[in-house]
Here is the input.
Amino acid sequence: DLTSHSYALVLQGHAYGDVWGLATHPSEHQFVTCGDDGTVRMWDVPSRRMIMIRDLGAKGRSCTYHPDGSQIA
Here is the structure.
């Protein structure tokens, strides 16, 4: 809010460290994140909830969707 200078939490979910990657789905109301906790997480925008988590086995630095939205890299 620009007049009251208040902030709203949009989402919270990575275990620790920084979030380095964020990509939006090309056609759905979803996005993915990755970061220092070694996970990639998929989020549903309308509900603001995490809908999938996968362990990367190492810190994540970037993520993206395939142009048709079928895969995450």
Remarks:
- Strands lie at 19-24, 30-35, 39-44, 49-55.
